[in-house]
Amino acid sequence: MRLPEDPDLPPQIYLAPLIDVIFALLTFFIMSTLFLTRSQGLPVALPKAVTAESQKVSQVVITITPNGELALDKKPMNISTLPAAVREILGRNPKAVVVINADEKVPHGQVITVMDRLRSIPNIRLAIATRQP
């Protein structure tokens, strides 16, 4: 039994599926980049500092919103319960840096009050978040 020969067609690359895959990969990488660059904590306008440096170790973020509300790692917190909650977190990770993420409109006295309460914790490492101009 003899089978009919197929006509010899040159190999082809179909571009439509290739373009679909490229756009899917591009969308994935754009979305993942957006999620990686998002700042921890609640949205606040950080003050500028020319000498600002990035912190590479694990962080505990305390956010002070413009209306004076406190949040510890995005959870609302009271100033009286803040030291105990931070002490508990630092008990699990003693090398963590406590970053105060205060809005630039927050009165200086309120930031000092938070720092004063946190200094009662032994071996605490405090930092204030800023943004580079």
UniProtKB/TrEMBL annotation:
InterPro entries: ExbD
Record keywords, A-Z: Cell membrane, Membrane, Protein transport, Transmembrane, Transmembrane helix, Transport
Any one GO molecular function term: transmembrane transporter activity
This protein's GO CC annotations: plasma membrane
Topology with respect to the bilayer: Single-pass membrane protein; Single-pass type II membrane protein
One Pfam family this sequence matches: ExbD
Transmembrane spans: 12-36
Compartment(s): Cell membrane
Gene Ontology BP terms: protein transport
Keyword Transport found: yes
Family: Belongs to the ExbD/TolR family.
Protein name: Biopolymer transporter ExbD
Organism, scientific name: Leptolyngbya boryana CZ1
Origin organism lineage: Bacteria, Bacillati, Cyanobacteriota, Cyanophyceae, Leptolyngbyales
